[in-house]
Amino acid sequence: MSIENLRTGIDEIDSEIIRLLNRRCELARQIGAWKHENNLPIYVPEREQQLLDRLADHNPGPLDRDSLIAIYREIMSAAIKLEQPMNIAFLGPEGTFSHQAVLEKFGRGVTCQPVPTIADVFSAVEAGRADYGMVPVENTTEGVVNPTLDSLTEANVRIVAEFNLPVHLLLYSASPLSEIRCVYSHQQPLGQCREYLRANLPNATLIEVTSTTRAVELAERERDAAAISGKLAGDNTDLPVVAENIEDNLRNITRFLVIGKQENKPTGDDKTSMCFAFHDRAGALYDALRPFRNHNISMTMIESRPLKSGHWEYNFFVDIRGHISDPEVAAACAELKSDCSFFKVFGSYPRIQN
Fold first, then answer.
1. Global model pTM greater than 0.85
2. What is the pLDDT of residues 175-189, one digit of tens each?
3. Cα-Cα-Cα-Cα dihedral of 119, 131, 215, 187, to 10°?
């Protein structure tokens, strides 16, 4: 078959794809109207997860899973925009990894709202200035993000979804490695490529700034400076890339939480996040975790943060497998709550595959 015939075949398929996409979007618009009439949220994480899982299971190839999911995220983003435009708050400015997480999770059909701090993301959602918020909660190299944990205990919002973002770091500079005297970046990226910096820029001064986007801006002004950032922040600079993928951990992943106000229905493969505190006594933590063992519930994360009382008492943050409406999960949480001075469930949401 000639290349002209092959291209004609592609053109015919593209025309059919456009027709079907518009048909899909019209159905989505009708769904949006129904949701509005019934006062239901536009974004439904459990439906999203079921749809993506079904697509992946029915994909015969040669299109790989990640490419298929990326295409459909943009299709769903366009459909949501037709249903009702969504506003997503994130830790700004634009170009940060939080911004990248919003785009990869929700697509480019949403309105991205950068705010100065993680606490401001929670405030924007709580006050209704944003429909949802995207906040980092832990990284495979640097551990938990404490401002997110603190805000979860204080704000009147719920976790409605999670998202894992592979983090690849690049070194931007107008100078070669041998001439770089200082390196700007956010605290997290500096920690995530500590070994690279020690081996390749041992004499450079490391300077923490508010964001990777700000780091690039500062490096543009100084000939002997460099910035560590992601690709998104670097898309708006003329600075050359001196080195790519300089993160120490090849599986450098940041887990993000989507916060909102709705309660999700169970999917059969969920995660529940919570926080609790108790008065200090011997064996208190062991006793607190016993209900999970008794009800055969797996924990996927446990972390502690000191209470602001200053008496060396702690909040414990726990993620478990299951939905809060599952009988075993509900029973375990009821037993745990009865032994705690503070107890709060942050939300149940679809568990994403690693």
1. yes
2. 999 999 999 999 999
3. 40
